[in-house]
Amino acid sequence: MTSRLKIILLFVILIVPAVLSAVTTKLAFSRAERVEFCASCHTMTPWINDVTGADGDSLAHEHFSRRLIQHDQCYTCHSDYGFLGPLQAKLKGVRHLIAFYIDPDRKVELYGKFPNANCLQCHAEGKAFLEDSNHEPVEDLLSGKDLCVDCHDTAHNVEQDDDAAVDAAPDGDGDDKEARKVDAVKAADGNGDAGEKGKGDDDAEDGE
Amino acid sequence: MPPLIRIALLLVAIATAFAVSCLIKTTALSMTFFFSISLPAYGLAGILYIVEVVRDLRRHSVL
What we know:
- The complex is a heterodimer.
- By secondary structure, chain A is an all-alpha fold.
- Chain A has helices at residues 3-31, 35-39, 45-52, 59-65, 73-78, 85-102, 116-123, 127-131, 138-143, 148-151, 175-190.
- Chain A has one domain (32-196).
- Chain A has eleven helices and no strands.
- Chain B has one domain (3-59).
- Chain B contains two helices and no strands.
- In chain B, helix 1 runs antiparallel to helix 2.
- Chain B starts with a helix and ends with a helix.
- Classes of the chains: A mainly alpha, B mainly alpha.
- Chains A and B meet through helix 1 and helix 6 of A and helix 1 and helix 2 of B.
């Protein structure tokens, strides 16, 4: 090999790929937070339609249509709040792709209970949240003893193949929870403040 | 051109194709291909290149 060819190969095999890898990784990670990215997987189409559609009464739709979350609406609610949250969300995304490839008919469900921290990252300091009597005792919500989605359970209005509505959490049981749920929805309808709404919903295929 | 370099170039070509497709339109699929095919292929190509360089140096009794 000539000296010139050796230099060309150094660039072609080592330097250019290193730069291209770094740029692509950075761009891909930032683009993966957008709603358009989530919509690129057709499995998510019903949820995307619910969020971005003209009509809707789900929490996700309200957050999107009122711009309570400015950008990256899916990612904001569905990546766990914390140091490793964003990384875990992306790794789960890859697992979802594999799970869907293996079993396309699998029902889309949450891995577990929707964590309060994902709601409270925005709502915890809100006046409307803190002053709402339905949230008392607030400490139970902050500690995770009570779940936001126990009352705010219409995160998405989506029906899956078995015609079962997908809720973020198990149905509230008892009159007290139902009453609180109605209060919360009324309060949410009454003002545009972000302080009243919790979130929750689908996000994953369980048990991969 | 040594066979290892040819293989490395082939790997770089394949990896670049997936990387560019991910750059043009980032979807769940293109991103998965980039991370599961392109990055390992780039890594393998780099290793093959270095192996060939070391071989070449040994051939010329530098190492």
